[in-house]
Hints:
single chain; alpha+beta; CATH 3.30.1330.60; 33% helix
Amino acid sequence: MKMNKLVFPLVLVLAGVMATTGCKKGFTKVTPLPGQRAAQIGDINNGGGTLPPAGTLGGDGGAGSIGLNTKPGGGDTAGLDEFEGMIKDPAALAAYTVHFKFDSATVQNSEQANIASVAQALVSDVNTKLLIEGNCDERGTEEYNRSLGERRALAVREELIRLGIDATRVDTTSFGKDKPEDPGHDEAAWKKNRRDDFVVLTPPAK
Length: 206
């Protein structure tokens, strides 16, 4: 009789432990793997929205995303009417053309000397304005290359503003892949075509 009194409480305790263990089973906490991201991202070049489909062809044949349509550098560009009627001189600063890497709008350190020379030319003649023409090589879609060419021009404009050039003196445009420096279809030609050209604008003689 005493044995039964001891066994019965033990059975109850064991039953409680088993019931508790059974409830916890199947509720293991999941730790996200490093690098996992949501389907929608609001950073880098997209400026928000969903990720582009895998394999989408970007500028210069890359798989980048379309950039923001804003003027960097903290300054507004001059109105187009302020540039109308000015005399264009694409040869004056042709020696300082800025080139870019494949599918990139990042200004390389090797190009900073050219940009500094352009800034100095603008400082020496305060009556001039500048048009930066962004260009790409032949690879990639027409739409993306227009966007990439504009981002390249804007990147150099930002550098000029950083060097003290008034933002209202500099405007940008993009030719995408429509204005190649070299009509070839190899890497040597593509390297030349990934560039920004500078066009000096001077007021007409009165």
